[in-house]
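User: My instructor asked us to take a sequence, write out its structure as tokens, and then describe one feature of it. I'm not sure where to start. Here is the sequence I was given:
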Amino acid sequence: MSGAMRAVAPRRRLYDRTAELAAVARLSARSETGLGGVLFLTGAPGEGRTAVLSRAADDFRRAGSPTASESRPGNTGYLVGAPEHRGPWSGARALFAALAPTPSAARRALRLARGETGLAAAVTELLAGRPTLICLDDLHLWDAHSRAALTAAWQDAGPRKAGRHGGARHERGGRREGGRHEEGPRHDIGRPVADQSGRPGWVVSAGRHHRLPDVPGAETVRLGRLTADGARALLDELCAVPPVPSVVGRLLDDTAGHPGLLASVARRLTAAQLSGGSPLPRPVADGAVVAEVYGRLLGRLPADSRRLLSLVALADRTGGAGASAAYEVDIGAVLSAARATRTHVEALDGLLADGLLCRRGDLLRFEDPFLARAARASAPTAWHQCVQEATGSVPPGTTGVRAGAGAGPTSAVLTWSEEHRTDRLGSSPAGRVVAPVVRGRSQLVRGLAALAGGPVMDAYESLLQAAELLRDRAPVEASDARFLAMEAAWAGGDIPACLTALDGGRGARGSERDFAEGLTAALTVRLDHARPSLARVVARDGSEDDPRLLLRAGSAALVLGDTTAAARVHARALARARAERRTSLLPRVLEHLAYAELRAGRYSRAALTAREGLRAAELTGQRNVAAHQHAVLALVASVVGDEGAVAEHAGRALETARPHGLAQAATLAEWALARSELGRGLAAQAAARLVPLVRLGPRGGHFALRMLVVPCFVEAAVASDRRAEARAAADEYAVWAVQGVDSAAPAQLARCRALLAKGEEPAYWFGEAVRHHDDCGNDFERARTLLAYGTWLRRHRRPGDARGPLRDALVTFERAAAAGWAEHARSELRATGGASGGVVSPGAWGRLTPQQQRIARLVAQGATNREVADHLSLSPRTVDHHLRSVFARLGIRSRVELSGVVGQWDMPE
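Assistant: Let's start with the prediction itself. The structure tokens for your sequence are:
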């Protein structure tokens, strides 16, 4: 199924689909009353997902056709397939093209979906209250942006309380996982329809291997194979000559009741074969048949993934005989075959994550044997002999795996497999020769596991040992192990360990040597020596296609303080990792990119990247990366002024960072908490929290973040009468600021001096700070400087002079949706006698988004946040976020003020 269609496909009979159609009927009944819901339908290619969706849309439309005497709108049913091209938002475009009456309406809906309102509001606007069932086919083929938007829409529209644990799941025939039968979200029963009216129903199909999103209250139905009676009925419908019982039995055995294969075979058999007069082919479902049914799934995979699937199928010694062939292959044999055919093994991560392949110990196997037969049939003819020769005698311990950028779950499996294979050889000469390599790779696996989710200094020790064991026999892997050991030590904040891992670049060449020498010089505070080497790394590796080299170039750019180059290079690494389906690498790339965006002052981008990185890290079990992303999100929330989000994300980060020794993540999280406290006027508490972060020593903050924290500490310390400590920190910061590794440092140094100065001297330093801010581009820090300047002017009885900086600060905070900081600036402005609230200009209403206007209107009429959320199909937290932005933009502080402000204008719908 591809593209988007308004009309549904012609009706056809469905066999053995009673349970599936019953689940559709339950959802359709809720959709007719506006309650909506989500039903997931999973199955293998050819098992009839599209047919069930087509029937669902058709039945819903027919059931709701109004009679001549009725004036109500009829039911609408849509069937939308995955677009052929999976560019960003391509799926959403296909959806809106199906739902919208005109192309301009579709474009407007896409803008709403990509903006603050989200996809749910865009769909609600298009449907205009009509009872609707939307059937989305092949969700696994939709682009990531559209899938994320759909998931958010389904989660926001899901049950608020009782259904948060999800709906019932079941197999074909009504057998439910968990042993109980539920027909939908229980809390909807008996509630007024108006409370949740206007929601569409969603029937969503996906491949059996696809990981479904977690949607509260959703029901999941798994399509199954046909029974003997169902298969006979299907064959009777498809075959020109009714097949004799013996032929039916043979077809059923060879296809295992797979409806797509049965249909394909039936089209190929002659009348003589169906009547038993001619022999049937062996096998009946040969390569051409399975390739016809599974070809589209294989065709949509990246080239390396298709090649690897073919290699796994070819490496199986059984040859795939029978419908239930195991297709279990030793992973060492697959690696040998990959080396013989020059196939990259990195795509294994994606195949395992997607569920197309499964792992059991050191064996790989297909979940679906027909997919294996299709992959085998699609392999080039020359590969058969090549793979047979490569896997006939696999020398133990000779299959290598690149670590570093591609390291992850697959790397661990591959290396463990080699160790296990060598152990079985006992005292063979080959085993004794490669023992150091095997032990080195074993240590590499342990180090990778600890780096992903354990104490980072344990990872450091294992990776360093791996580098030593692999130095002579596997120099490339040894180099990767050293780089990863350095990353582990960096995350732990241990400079001597970083230097040991870098080893001064001994034995390295080219960019690798430049990076090691440059970073060694930077860590020993010899920046003049570091710059030329690191600049060569950025220039040389920053244009490569290997994510490993791009990560190294991005790290070099961050050390140099070139945040623009760092963000650009890491964005390139992200694009390459996605294109190559490097599932285990993706969280690490997103971690680096989020930090680069944070350092550049692009907080909204940093938050977006960190959220994606958090999802990727949780899916791949990389707890340490998840902790870092939580810390980034906490720091961004401290900018916005969302106290709850700061506490939540900082707490989640520290849960992992403290026991695992993640000094960098812990420093970011503590800094976020302190900034939140400072924004709420708790200067003494913030200063006490920041004191350890700006000190040297093992109990201090991370060495790469210590100086970045100083300006915040100085502000808190001065406000809490700890001027001596503030002055000492500022003096050290002055030495660091002139080294040019942070473009914002001159402006923040001037602000520190202004806060510490006396008499009229602060006015000069505040002016210098604003001038430097204009050159570095971080608007949030510029607004903080203006706020501090305006506060100083007001307290020195210069209210007229204070209003200008305070107004500029207020506007900047409002643009950044930094509600807490905006309120601080607004209170200071009020104290000067300036107009920051009360009568609001008519133009202020126009600065609100359409969604914010709707929310403001409902709140002004007395609705609670939950009532607004239910009315607009949003979550209460989203409503709260929009409402705070409304208050900030209108310059008001309460719902009472909002009612008065809204009453000033005529606001038609």
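For the description part of your assignment, you could build on this observation: The chain has a mean pLDDT of 78. Try explaining in your own words what that tells you about the chain.
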